[in-house]
Amino acid sequence: MNTINYAALATGIMLSLTTLGTVQAAVPKDMLAIGKAADPQTLDPAVTIDNNDWTVTYPAYQRLVQYKTENGKGSTQVEGELAASWSASDDRREWTFKLKPGNRFDDGSEVTADAVKWSFERLMSIGQGPSEAFPKDMQVTAVDPLTVKFTLKTPFAPFLYTLANDGAGIVNPAIAQGQPGRSRQGLVGKPYRRFRRISPRSLAERSATDPGAEPALRRPETGL
């Protein structure tokens, strides 16, 4: 019969708690350190459907809309993120979004309707898991620099909410062109930019070009 050395077990637990306390004490208040079971496979929102990746990609990119957080809790309602407003035709086949002025990628280039159009066309042309949430017949038009229109052949009831999905992240065309399925420094959006990767850790810090509200966490870090 196997026996348990409770004294040794208790000592091990105390050492673990002491180590955990030391690590927590070393983390600045404006930094979130996350222990992950594995490195992200990719940081490209047009490619990944992995929950492990999403914990990094979802806060790293902005979308036209995002799910509301109310009193610290998530909800099923959406609000504008890059979009200042939107409207839908009576038949729900055309959706028009007005972008907030002043949105910029980390390299300083403006987030325009053309960038939104390019991001969705890239998503659909890559054709991996994230694209399956969107209508295959979707057409995207840049009406003017701050207006983008989606045209559907048939109404799609959850369309607005689908735009809050991880796969709807807007990427920087100047960085992402010629990089299908890949992501590298500068591809991500606001409010955090990928700063460096030192295996097995990834470190992000706030983008200097982000005009939004000051985030509570300036340096999210993930590691094994």
TrEMBL record:
Gene Ontology CC terms, in alphabetical order: outer membrane-bounded periplasmic space
* Signal peptide feature range: 1-25
* Domain spans labelled Solute-binding protein family: 78-172
Q: Where is this region: Disordered?
A: 198-224
Example GO molecular function term? Answer: peptide transmembrane transporter activity
What InterPro entries does the record tag this protein with?
SBP_5, SBP_5_dom
Which one GO biological process term can you cite for this protein?
Answer: dipeptide transport
Q: Which Gene3D superfamilies is this protein grouped with?
A: Periplasmic binding protein-like II
Which keywords does this chain's UniProt record carry? Signal
SUPFAM superfamilies cross-referenced by the UniProt entry: Periplasmic binding protein-like II (SSF53850)
Similarity comment text for this entry: Belongs to the bacterial solute-binding protein 5 family.
Q: What is this protein called?
A: Dipeptide-binding protein
